[in-house]
Amino acid sequence: MASLWRYVLAGLGLAALLAGILTAVYLTAPQAPQRAGFEIARSKKTTNGLFVASFEPEQGVIRQGELQSWLLILRTGAGTPVEGAAITISGGMPQHRHGLPTSPQATDYLGDGCYRIDGVKFTMSGLWQLHFAISAAAGSDTVVFNVLL
């Protein structure tokens, strides 16, 4: 009977040790960024208010690890589509301090202020930022979109 109690106590001790290790690992593991504190709107005014920009994946779903096309829709403050804009794109993961793994480009004007952005790739989960520099007849402006995977 005494040996049975030793096995029970040893099992309880082992369970407590395992619970302690799992708790320590959970509390020290890096956490994914929370939505709170990160503005992730898909439509917003540009920095100087010249345009209203909207940014969305062409297929409607953000996919990690795949090259994708996104749509950038530009309108004036009055809602008129912005045509003939020159757009440059940069960005990266600010928390990891690295840039994009690809060089996205505005490749097509689809009409009605809609531009296709090809070459967007998110290689890992976390907070990504895409910076757009826009130059059109109304002037030059910038906008930054946060994308949280």
What does this structure look like?
The strands form two sheets. This protein has a five-stranded antiparallel beta sheet, with no helix packed on it. Strands 5-4-8-9 form a four-stranded antiparallel beta sheet, with no helix packed on it. The radius of gyration is 24 Å and the shape is elongated. The protein has 149 residues and is an alpha+beta fold. Helix content is 18%, strand content 42%.
Q: What distance lies between the first and last C-alpha atoms, to the nearest angstrom?
A: 56 Å
Seen as an oligomer or otherwise, the chain set is single chain
Gyration radius over CA: 24 Å
**Poorly predicted ranges (pLDDT <50, ≥5 residues)?**
31-36
- The level of helicity is 10-25%
**DSSP helix count?**
1
